[in-house]
Write a structure and sequence with these properties.
Elements: H1 4-18, H2 25-35, E1 39-43, H3 49-56, E2 62-67, H4 70-76, E3 83-86, E4 99-104, H5 115-128, E5 129-140, H6 150-153, E6 156-159, E7 165-172, E8 180-189, E9 195-202, H7 206-215, E10 218-224, E11 238-245
Parallel strand pairs: 1-2, 1-4, 2-3, 4-5
Antiparallel strand pairs: 5-11, 6-7, 7-8, 8-9, 10-11
Helix pairs in contact: 1-4, 2-3
Amino acid sequence: MVDRAFSEARLAAVYDRFNPWEGRGDFGFYLPLVMGAGSVLDVGCGTGELLRRAREEGHTGRLCGLDPAAGMLDVARASGDIEWVLGDSSAVRGWDRQFDLVVMTGHAFQVLVGDDELRSTLAVIAAALTDTGRFAFETRNPLVREWETWDRRYSGAVTDESGAVVRCVCRVAEPVEGDLVSFTHTFTSERWEPEVSHSTLRFLDANALAGFLSDAGLVVAEQFGDWDRSPLTASSPEIITVAKDAALPVGRVAESPGLR
């Protein structure tokens, strides 16, 4: 029988090696937003690298990371001056109006594959925002069909802390139908039994996103097609969204330094 806790810890330990800060455009986009907000909730924080970097760079306010994977949070808890919460969005119910910024990075938003799950998560996030708060997240543009390149883009090898080489092979389940894409990551090492991670992500277009945000009382304040803040087009790789309370006048969006 596989020890699931041990397996999660082993994969969490190499996560940042497969996804280094320098190779991620999203952190360069989100970090200024985090630094410009007094209180921040990172939903699906993973190993907590974004919040840890913000603290290292001088953020003195409240930083809170939420993730359902215990192994990821074990890595994150190396930084004891940040709140780390194990669970999904239901774990923050009752935190009304406590955060100036909520983020979902690393395409974590796409893990919300069902309508009910998506609506309930957005409702919790909307409730957690202060009156002038922002929710920033990204989802891949379905028109680009990026999953067709994942077998090359997300396969590779790293060396773990013990010096062992860990290889990852990504495979997408074919055919892809509708807005759900299922895939596996298979991790192998001479010191490991093979580990297989199964995932499904949802690809929503900009109109569908706007509809779900509206149901939660949120509206798009800014939207970009890539991490350089270029406009969203049909060929853009990302749909990067900064949302706000629908009742907040658009003219007040620029009040937060992190959103300029």
